[in-house]
Design goal:
single chain; alpha/beta; 9-stranded mixed sheet; 7-stranded parallel sheet; globular
Length: 395
């Protein structure tokens, strides 16, 4: 019997997931794209019809409301929910999925709107609830988290007896021509990069000031780039699941223009997430800034250049020290030509589709809540090569 797939969220990433599911309609069956603003779903559905020749349904939904979600899920009865709305909606969508007995997948871990801190605690706490409902929840199936976790699991399975250090390296060398814009949701992006940095060494988390540690890494097909140490959510699960790990860090590239704008916005209070009074109205500065900045979905046709995301791992194999680098390069213009989105949305949306595909095909199975590195990396790595994210390994 044909499957039913529900995608929630119609931003840059939702667009890619919807396109890619439609391009794999044999697996995803009847596809519905639902979001807060239904006109965005309709515009995506129209493009998919024209470019892929597949019809998808659209709907309006407020994913902050568990009762509304439950009613919707009980009517539609999808086999899986792919959550590519915002991290604020993770818990409500998870709770609705467990109430209705439907598998769940997301790409970013839960964040409370009032605290710029993301952690897996509350999603992991739903493990029992998912087991009782006899369903699977796959957390963080984007690129980072997502493909980077799978790269670590692949390295562990095929290349090492023990991995001692991992550096996750995220380079976006794309240029959209704006002095300042973010490649995915501005609020989520700015909260992440303006927070304190953190890495894990010898069993402890070490905190740094925002952007305090910079290293120049040389990225294949891109060249050397200033890369800043950030805290990133996949490290929280990887320290639990990678054998023998002594240190893990995450670096992301930023250009000078981005950093100068961000510092200035921070200095004047525009990155604040607490309400302020403005002419008798309450506004949150960060939300107002997000309104002013270009919609990430609109960057697609203007962005040129490449992304390169990967992991650099060192450890031991058969008593000998070993280093490997697994990475994936995407070209923004090629991504746009295929699915009308720039590379950052593409590299997030394709792994979301792949995770869901493996679940629907029964290749990734389980009851409870899982991070990506807990599952067999091989079918995911195979799909990446087939679905537009070919990767390379340097030993
Ligand atoms: P966008 O802001 O472009 O899109 C978010 C979508 O979610 C919008 O369509 C928005 O609706 C919808 N939405 C927001 N609130 C609700 C709600 N209450 N009910 C229903 N729909 C809602 O974000 P992106 O597409 O750039 O990012 C999507 C997700 O992907 C985010 O969680 C982000 O953190 C994650 N991500 C993960 C990455 C990874 O590698 N793991 C990398 C990049 C992003 P509306 O149009 O009405 O605002």
């Amino acid at each position: 019997m044909s499957k039913k797939t529900l995608i929630i969220g119609a931003g840059g990433v939702g667009n890619v997931v919807a396109f890619k599911c439609a391009m794999n309609a044999d697996t995803f069956g009847n596809i519905t794209l639902a979001s807060r603003t239904v006109s965005k779903c309709d515009a995506i559905a129209k493009n998919i019809q024209e470019k892929v020749g597949v019809t998808i349904a659209t709907a309006s939904i407020d994913a902050n409301s568990v009762p509304q979600l439950i009613e919707f899920l009980n009517t539609l009865k999808p086999d899986i929910v792919i959550n590519v709305a915002l991290p604020y909606q993770d818990l409500t969508i998870m709770d609705a999925c467990s109430a209705c007995g439907i598998d769940y997948l997301d790409t970013a871990n839960y964040e409370h709107p009032d605290t710029a801190k993301f952690e897996y605690k509350e999603q992991w706490a739903r493990d029992e609830q998912f087991k009782e409902a006899n369903i699977m929840g796959l957390l963080g199936s984007g690129f980072d988290p997502g493909a980077t976790n799978v790269f670590c699991a692949y390295a562990q399975k095929h290349y090492f007896d023990e991995i001692h250090t991992i550096d996750i390296l995220d380079c976006n060398a794309g240029d959209h021509g704006y002095p300042f814009a973010t490649n995915f949701n501005p609020e989520i992006n700015l909260r992440e990069v303006s927070a304190k940095g953190r890495y894990w060494e010898n069993g402890e988390w070490i905190e740094t000031e925002p952007m305090e540690i910079m290293q120049v890494w040389d990225y294949p097909e891109v060249g050397p780039k200033d890369s800043y140490l950030l805290y990133h959510e996949e490290m929280e699960s990887l320290v639990k699941h990678i054998k023998g790990l002594k240190r893990i860090r995450f670096f992301m590239t930023f250009g000078q223009s981005y950093l100068t704008h961000m510092k200035c916005l921070e200095n004047v209070g525009m990155l604040g997430i607490k309400e302020v009074e403005h002419k008798g109205m309450k506004i949150v500065p960060m939300e107002f800034l997000a309104t002013l900045l270009p919609d990430p979905a609109s960057l697609g046709p203007r962005t040129k250049g490449k992304t390169n995301i990967g992991i650099y791992a060192k450890g031991m194999k058969d008593g000998v020290e070993k280093t490997i680098y697994i990475y994936q390069v995407s070209d923004h213009e090629a991504c746009y030509a295929e699915v009308m989105s720039q590379g950052v949305s593409y590299t997030t949306g394709v792994p979301a589709m792949i995770g869901a595909k493996l679940m629907l095909e029964g290749k990734w199975q389980g009851k409870g809540v899982f991070n990506m590195e807990q599952l067999d990396p091989d079918p995911f790595m195979e799909e990446m090569n087939k679905q537009g994210l070919p990767w390379k390994i340097i030993e």
